[in-house]
Every structure is written in structure tokens, then in C-alpha cells.
Write a structure and sequence with these properties.
With 158 residues, this protein is of the alpha+beta class. The protein contains one helix and eleven strands. The chain folds into two domains: 36 residues; 116 residues, Rieske [2Fe-2S] iron-sulphur domain (Rieske Iron-sulfur Protein, 3-layer Sandwich), CATH 2.102.10.10. Bound molecules: FE2/S2 (inorganic) cluster. FE2/S2 (inorganic) cluster (FES) binds next to loops.
Length: 158
């Protein structure tokens, strides 16, 4: 190998190393970007607060029963798409975007076998956390902050 061949060999090694490092960095950035897909819907960035008395709301009345769930459109939340409300305990009502994190299609069925089920491609989510239990979805459902007082039946959505 003469000096020129050695130089070419060094360049090849450098390019191999550099391209591997770039690949690792690109994959890392991709996964970080995926993590960020669960940020709150922009509609809620202005600290919108909406309250309901669930016993007086036609749709939310069903939530007087533990483990009940219902879809409801709430103005200024979730870009006009329905929110999935689930009463997971005496004092907790969860609120999730109905937009599936797999392909953004609207989940139109709620609980099946104690799981939030997206019938489009079969993803399943945990009602207590929104975390993925079964793919193809990879990221949790977007969750809205709630408080619920079982004494007054007042549900606050933030
Ligand atoms: S859009 Fe829900 S599983 Fe594909």
C-alpha cells in the first residue's frame, strides 16, 4: 500500500465512523421527537378551565358509575374532537384525547375488557394512565388534567 492508498483507506474509515455516529444521532433525535408527541393539545395552552356537574350533564351523567366512560366534545379542548372521559375510581375521572397516537384517527369505541380500544388497527391503552398496552401505537394517549369531587359531582377540566 503506498501513501495515497493509505490516505484513501483513512478517509474510508473516517467516513464509516462519521456515518455511524450520524445514524445514532439521527435515531436518538427521532425517538426524542416521538416522546414529544404526547404533549398537551395546543387548545389547552391558555389555561382553559371548564367545569361540569356530571349529574346535570346529559352526556356525563353516565360517569356517576365507576368504570363508566363516554365521549364528549368540549369547546376549546382537543381541537373540537371528542374527549374520552373515564371514571376510574370513586374520586378520579380521567380525560383523554380521542385521537389515537398510532395514526391520529378518532377512537370511536371506549372500553373493551377494561382497556381503551382503538378499532382501527387494534391499539389498546390503559384507562388509568393512557399508556400503550398493545400496539401498533407507540406513545400514550394525550391526557387532559382533571379534578373531580365526588361529594359535589363537579368535574374540572384544565
Ligand atoms: S389509528 Fe388507532 S390503532 Fe391505528
Amino acid at each position: 500500500m503506498n501513501w495515497t492508498d493509505a490516505s484513501i483507506e483513512q478517509r474510508r474509515d473516517f467516513l464509516k465512523t462519521a456515518s455511524s455516529a450520524f445514524g445514532v444521532a439521527a435515531c436518538g433525535a427521532f425517538f426524542i421527537a416521538c416522546e414529544n408527541t404526547t404533549v398537551k393539545n395546543p387548545d389547552t395552552q391558555n389555561n382553559q378551565i371548564t367545569t361540569f356537574t356530571i349529574t346535570e350533564d346529559v352526556k356525563l351523567q353516565v360517569l356517576t358509575t365507576i368504570n363508566a366512560s363516554v365521549f364528549k366534545v368540549v369547546p376549546n379542548f382537543n381541537s373540537g374532537f371528542p374527549i374520552l372521559f373515564i371514571r376510574t375510581s370513586e374520586s378520579v375521572i380521567k380525560a383523554y384525547s380521542s385521537s389515537c397516537t398510532h395514526q391520529g384517527l378518532v377512537i370511536n369505541e371506549s372500553l373493551e375488557n377494561g382497556r381503551i380500544y382503538c378499532s382501527w388497527h387494534g391499539s389498546e391503552f390503559d384507562p388509568a394512565s393512557g399508556n400503550v398496552l398493545q400496539g401498533p401505537a407507540l406513545t400514550p394517549l394525550v391526557q387532559f388534567s382533571t379534578t373531580f369531587d365526588p361529594l359535589t359531582n363537579i368535574l374540572t377540566l384544565k
